[in-house]
């Protein structure tokens, strides 16, 4: 009888499973076009000692840095996030354009934060994108404690890449680092003080190799990347730090630049490249040396007194499988131009768009002739060194220090709330004393905007725009004027999401406002961003349609003036629900759960 009961139970379970699979396959027919990729992120604190001092860092799934998200053009990406921090959390997918999907951008202007101990699921499509990007926590200065990781968007198989397929793909996260955690650094800024010099530079979350016994203490864990001789690797490098521009180089190896934040570049060899905060590049590196020893991988601070900043240098090891010994001797030299930024600017100007290569689509990148489009709106956006605003040390753009509203801008629009923000961001710097306001740019849907970023600070800045790739058409020292347009590159200026603006200089960008939503324009320097150096661009289609913006997701969180609408059970099941796609995601979860039960 026991055997018969067991057989009957097994038969019943298998019948249920087969039925479930049939339902799942039927559901899947509706989504045969673009695949789904699923990720589970548990965000928590762990103890680590990257510079030899024990400290609390933010990990993803227990790892610091977090895992690299490997997806393909047009994939639907579903990320279930479990917030195990003791404070609110948002994850931002820097460089992912979130086409039609501003709700998923993970910034306080578009999303209410995920409370501690809560789940929330992001769901977005990497539509018509390829390239190298990264994600990070966007609230409360948390990026200074980690929580970041790489995003790789691969070409579809039918779209050719403009180089031979590399042997392997390597992701490297570089960035300045403090041995104080983000809460301590945050308190320093709120007290009106500078953060001071960083304690070091990390490479993939690890401290420097002990290349010098005096400078580097014993016992530091360092990054080692093992490679095969004679092979070519695609190495993707992102500066995920706080405020330090870094020069990246690999001893005795050329860096053949191939891509910058989603655009294939004209391929050029560099012995080293300046990578500013928030920027990402990918290089093709041939392992063509004799492997008489290992080789240094170096990320060192730029535009500083090298003798005083020796400890602020990241050093890893490139190790051939047939290496005959350890790396030794001095590090490869950085550019020798502490006070002259001309070399670095000329290097930035040399990065050009590969107009004949296919990007995410089969047509050449250069088929979009940005230089022949009439500009419809112009903004000259000027920063200044930190200054006192309403009794607080703040940073500004055009004389306005941005205040994030308690109700996100996009949510306020959805519910037609008044007084949450002002559509009055000035087209040029204001005269008079600076002020603290929630002032944003009123962008015109399908307009073509020119933005001149004028850096009147004494330090390097990088600026990022969510929702778009913009064209970097010019940069120079001094004040921008109308005559500066005569120097613009209107043919092969690189399309990217983050650009450098040198101190006492300007950078001009052009952007096609074809993506409806509320999009962040900010400095990537984390300290200046935290103190107010940002705004948003609001782009609205006067004839709302799902073709230009997807509906508010069913699992949207509520806060601020709409906080009373939020119920705990609204997110008790961390499934992102957006039309029929939610059913597909749900069926996937149910199917996996059923298979797990059957085989227990």
Task: Provide a compact summary of the structure.
The chain has 600 residues and is mainly β. The protein contains six helices and 33 strands.
Topology:
Layout (H helix, E strand, L loop, with lengths): L1 H27 L7 E13 L6 E6 L8 E4 L3 E8 L7 E4 L24 E7 L5 E7 L11 E6 L13 E10 L4 H9 L9 E4 L20 E4 L4 E8 L6 E5 L4 E6 L2 E8 L2 E3 L4 E7 L8 E7 L11 E8 L21 H8 L27 E7 L3 E3 L2 E3 L5 E3 L6 H6 L20 E3 L3 E4 L3 E8 L5 E5 L4 E8 L17 E2 L1 E4 L3 E8 L4 E7 L2 H5 L3 E7 L40 H18 L2
Parallel strand pairs: 1-4, 3-8, 9-12, 11-19, 20-26, 23-24, 25-33
Antiparallel strand pairs: 1-2, 4-6, 5-7, 7-8, 9-10, 12-17, 13-16, 13-18, 14-15, 14-17, 18-19, 21-22, 26-31, 27-30, 27-32, 28-29, 28-31, 32-33
Helix pairs in contact: 1-6
Helicity range of the residues? 10-25%
Tally of contiguous helical segments: 6
Q: How would you sum up the global shape?
A: globular
Secondary-structure content class: mainly beta
Biggest pleated sheet: 6 strands, mixed
Membrane topology: Lipid-anchor; GPI-anchor
Family: Belongs to the multicopper oxidase family.
GO molecular function: copper ion binding; oxidoreductase activity
Main location: membrane
């Amino acid at each position: 009888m026991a055997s018969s009961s067991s057989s009957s139970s097994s038969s019943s379970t298998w019948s249920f499973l087969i039925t479930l699979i049939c339902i799942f396959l039927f559901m899947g027919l509706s989504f045969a076009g673009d695949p789904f990729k699923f990720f589970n992120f548990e965000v928590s604190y762990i103890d680590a000692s990257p510079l030899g001092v024990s400290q609390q860092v933010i990990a993803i799934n227990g790892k610091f840095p977090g895992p690299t998200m490997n997806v393909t053009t047009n994939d639907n990406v579903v990320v279930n996030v479990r917030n195990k921090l003791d404070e609110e959390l948002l994850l931002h997918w820097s460089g992912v354009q979130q086409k039609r999907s501003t709700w998923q951008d993970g910034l306080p202007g578009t999303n209410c934060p995920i409370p501690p101990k809560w789940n929330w699921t992001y769901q977005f499509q990497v539509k018509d994108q390829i390239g190298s990007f990264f994600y990070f926590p966007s609230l409360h200065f948390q990026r200074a404690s980690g929580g970041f990781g790489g995003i790789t968007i691969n070409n579809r198989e039918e779209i050719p890449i403009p180089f031979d397929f590399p042997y392997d793909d390597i992701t490297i996260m570089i960035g300045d680092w403090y041995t104080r955690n983000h809460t301590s650094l945050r308190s320093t800024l709120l007290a009106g003080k500078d953060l001071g010099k960083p304690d070091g530079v990390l490479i993939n979350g690890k401290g420097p190799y002990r290349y010098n016994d005096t400078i580097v203490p014993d016992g530091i864990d360092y990054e080692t990347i093992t490679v095969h001789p004679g092979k070519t690797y695609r190495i993707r490098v992102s500066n995920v730090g706080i405020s330090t521009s870094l020069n990246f180089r690999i001893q005795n190896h050329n860096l053949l630049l191939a891509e910058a934040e989603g655009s294939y570049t004209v391929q050029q060899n560099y012995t080293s490249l300046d990578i500013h905060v928030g920027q990402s590049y990918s290089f093709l590196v041939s392992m063509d040396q004799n492997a008489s020893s290992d080789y240094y991988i170096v990320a060192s601070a730029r535009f500083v007194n090298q003798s005083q900043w020796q400890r602020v240098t990241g050093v890893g090891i490139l190790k051939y499988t047939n290496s005959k010994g350890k790396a030794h001797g001095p590090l490869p030299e950085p550019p020798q131009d502490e006070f002259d930024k001309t070399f670095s600017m000329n290097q930035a100007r040399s990065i050009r768009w590969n107009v004949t290569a296919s990007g995410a689509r089969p047509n050449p990148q250069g088929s979009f002739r940005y230089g022949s489009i009439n500009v419809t709106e112009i903004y000259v956006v000027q920063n200044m060194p930190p200054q006192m605003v309403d009794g607080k040390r703040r940073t500004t753009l055009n004389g306005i220090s941005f205040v994030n509203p308690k109700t996100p801008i996009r949510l306020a629009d959805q519910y037609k709330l008044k007084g949450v923000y002002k559509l009055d961001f000035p087209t040029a710097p204001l005269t008079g004393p600076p002020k603290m306001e929630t002032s944003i740019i009123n962008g015109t849907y399908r307009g073509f905007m020119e933005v001149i970023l004028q850096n009147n600070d004494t330090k390097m800045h990088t600026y990022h725009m969510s929702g778009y790739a913009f064209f970097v058409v010019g940069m120079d020292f001094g004040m921008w004027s109308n005559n500066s347009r005569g120097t613009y590159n209107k043919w092969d200026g690189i399309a990217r999401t983050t650009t450098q603006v040198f101190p006492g200089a300007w950078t001009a960008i052009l952007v096609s406002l074809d993506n409806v939503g509320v999009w962040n324009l900010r400095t990537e320097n984390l300290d200046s961003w935290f103190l107010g150096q940002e705004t948003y661009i609001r782009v609205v289609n006067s004839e709302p349609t799902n073709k230009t913006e997807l509906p508010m997701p069913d699992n949207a969180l509520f806060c601020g003036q709409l906080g009373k609408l939020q119920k705990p059970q609204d997110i008790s099941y961390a499934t992102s629900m957006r039309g029929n796609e939610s059913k597909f995601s749900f069926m996937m979860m149910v199917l996996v759960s059923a298979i797990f039960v059957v085989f227990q």
